[in-house]
Amino acid sequence: MKKIEKFKNPILTYGEEIYLQDNLVNKIKKRFVKDESMNFLRMGKLEDNIDELVNFFNTVSFSVGRKVAVVEECTFFKTKGKLDDKAYERLINFFENELQDGILIFLGGNLKIDKRKKIFKYLKKNGELVEYKKINEKELINWITRYLDYNNREINYTAGRLIANYSGYFEYESSKNLYDIKNELDKLVAYTDEKDNIKIKDIEKIMSISIDNNIFKFIDNIFEGKTNKSYEMLEDMISNNISPHYIYYMIIRQIRMLNKLAAYKEKRIREDYILKKMKTRSFIYKRLNYQYNNLGKKKIEYLALKSQIIERKAKTGKLDIVTGISILINKANK
Prior knowledge:
The chain is an alpha/beta fold and about 325 residues long. It has helices spanning about 20-30, 35-40, 50-60, 85-95, 120-125, 135-150, 155-165, 180-190, 200-205, 210-225, 225-240, 245-265, 270-280, 280-295, 295-315, 320-330; strands at about 10-15, 40-45, 70-75, 105, 130. It is built from 16 helices and 5 strands. It is elongated and about 80 Å long.
């Protein structure tokens, strides 16, 4: 991203990652606002308060720095949002003739922006559009490392990746953002001592294993015959930079757990003993039990055998791992 000093004005920031939008506002405020009481305005609904915005920028300030205003409620960028022609013309006139040296930021949040809107087209041509999509796995791990370093904690790449995967950030249709990751990291900081190296056991003790929920959803779709949904989820996870090898590993892990559960079930072992022997959480066991009942012992054994063949071919380069996952999706529904 280019430096904020080179941003055109006004600015619209939007997208799934609201933490980064707020961070952009804070950077602009820190860079340009010297006296917050005189030079910074945060307002809600704009439609009925355009004059307030205009007056703020037109009021002379004797302090150094630039005036910055943030509009938080930007529903007029949505398809069903409304900004009448009179208000639109008033805004455009303000942008072109009265905004001058001030900085105006529209904080879109995670609104679904309608790019056909006149106001959006105007900002695309004359202002600055800053979209913050969800970051990928590598970026998230780097962000986690930097945040913990700032808080006097050390972490290696493996542990950082575990936090990223446990957080649920990459779950299918997940609404989680960096604020949620920050909350988890703050818990880890509070749990560990200053200058401490955060270990795997710390993460497993403090964080819930959200990535499993994503894989369970994926596997549920596979085993319930929802082939199209399974492929949609697979494509989505890969596009979110979750490694196909990791996805395959989780599927195999799940099949092995189901196979183990089937063996215990065949011996009519008590449920509390199974839970203890499998060393898994109760909510995971419930989902495993559901999948076991849905598939049956023979189908689980067949999938376990098929997965071994796929894994062997993948290791020798005879089969692409994504193709291997696709084969398992198809075989589970035959």
